[in-house]
Amino acid sequence: MRVSKVLRAILGFTREVVILSVDVVSRPRPVVRVHVRPKVRRRGRCGRCGQSSPWFDNGDGARSWRHLDAAFATVELVAVARRVDCGGCGPTVAAVPWARHDSAFTRAFEDLVVHDAIVGNKQAAADRYGISWRAVNNMCVRLATEALDRVDLLDGLIAIAIDEVKYKKGQRYLTVVCDHVTGRVLWAAKGRSKDTVGEFFDALGDRAGQLDFVTADGATWITEVVAVRAPNAIVCLDTFHVIGWATKALDEVRRSEWNKLRQAGRAKAAKEFKGLRFLLRRNWENLTMGQREVIWALETANRRTFRAFTLKEELRDIFSMPIGLARRALDDWLHYASRSKLAPFVKLARSIRAYRPSIEATIEWRLTNGIAESNNASIGRIRTNARGFHHPDAFITMVMLDRTGLAPQLPWHTAA
Ligand SMILES: [Zn+2]
User: Fold this and answer.
1) How far is the CA of 108 from the centre of ligand 1 (A)?
2) Helices 356-365 and 239-263 sit at what angle, rounded to 10 degrees?
3) Which end of the chain lies in a sparser environment, N or C, as judged by fewer CB atoms within 10 Å?
């Protein structure tokens, strides 16, 4: 086999790239310098806007682009960066098949680095390829911008979820919008206020009229804006949040019972009781036989806590019932909860009455907790991998790259 054919395979070149010569420079790590040129055409394309334009000049002469490493060596492509005379942009460096405009790296190299930054973090990617954190960050921004220009994520939406996500300690939040159909993140911006939700609807424009469902956590800064900007949409309350309220009410009951035991001087009983906290938070079907026995024992040991646990589990069951059955079960549940003599559940019953139409819509249309929960978990993972984000834009860029399905493919799937 001819050496040049092997070389083309290693470099992942298509027929658009012509190899002129190759040399090796010994720095501590060898650098294979591959001199190339794009296949010559009568006209070139503007690197900025892609417009076909007449040739202008040879620009500043030879430039180099870092390409994917080859075994022990790093690889650089060297070429004359010719310019075209673009009608819109003026004299501009012509587009080259191997790199994005205005980058010192090839497209394949950038895709690989961004891929690593998403699955790991930016610093790990920077260390791995021997480039700066800033260079990795710029690649992430460049790829996210390019990808978001290519597709309109807000087209054809029917059901969306609006939620808030913490990006930093101390009340720093993003508003995140997801698509219920695909489970993908569509939009994210800094803040959690009516203005932030308004910005989303500005971006959506007339298409808000096509929205059938919006799920949210019941916060008025979301629901009030939705009522005005998407009046046709049915507002559903995210199951994830309702169950969260019930778990919180249960925890309040447990805590007050624990305090009673302590104040009565029953230290041993109080200590045993404290250990129940995480057990009570779990779902019945996830408990072991031994753990279930602990809960059953509560029926005689502490009836109030047992009643609270039962109320939480019954509410969870209602969300998986067919709507007719769920309506009747919810009537029963509200009746029982408001007479339970457990203050947190009496209060919860009042909230559920207030949100009842939204809760019934959630059950009827089966827009359950799946996406809000899984996106929250993934976004938490992105935040942990980066060990926090100082700037919300950097966080939004990573959330969009990872959760919108816009992340670059590995370069050998899309070789230039
Ligand atoms: Zn142009």
Assistant:
1) 23
2) 120
3) N
Tell me, what's the pLDDT at 379?
81
- β-strand partners of 37: 18
Structure tokens at 83: 């310019």
Q: What string of DSSP letters covers 267-299?
A: HHHHHHHHTTHHHHHS-GGG--HHHHHHHHHHH
- Residue type at 68 in one-letter notation: L
* Dist. CA 85 → ligand 1 center (Å): 8
Rounded CA-CA distance 130/75 in Å is 13
In angstroms, the CA 416 to CA 413 distance is 10
H helices present in 302-322, as ranges:
303-318
Distance 180 CA to ligand 1 centre (A): 39
- The closest of 213, 168, 207 to 191, measured between CA atoms, is 168
Cα separation of 54 and 239, whole Å? Answer: 60
The C-alpha atoms of residue 397 and residue 381 are separated, in whole angstroms, by 14
Q: How much distance in Å is there from the Cα of 339 to the middle of ligand 1?
A: 72
Averaged pLDDT in 10-residue chunks for the chain of 416 residues: 88 92 91 93 89 91 95 95 94 94 94 92 93 93 88 90 82 87 87 94 93 87 92 86 92 92 84 82 88 88 92 93 94 96 96 91 77 75 73 84 85 69
pLDDT at res. 414: 64
User: What is the rounded distance in angstroms from the CA atom of residue 296 to the CA atom of residue 275?
Assistant: 15
**How close is the Cα of 55 to the center of ligand 1, in Å?**
12
Which residues are close to ligand 1, an ion, with C-beta < 5 A? 46, 48-49, 51, 86, 88-89
Ligand 1 centroid to 45 CA: how many Å?
8
Measured in Å, residue 102 CA sits from the centre of ligand 1 at 13
Task: Tell me how far the alpha carbon of residue 394 lies from the centroid of ligand 1, in angstroms.
Answer: 28
**Whole-model pTM over 0.90:** no
Q: Do 229 and 208 touch, CB atoms closer than 8 A? A: yes
Burial class (CB in 10 A: 0-12, 13-18, 19+), 112: buried
Q: Where does 319-369 have alpha helices with state H?
A: 323-338, 343-354, 356-365
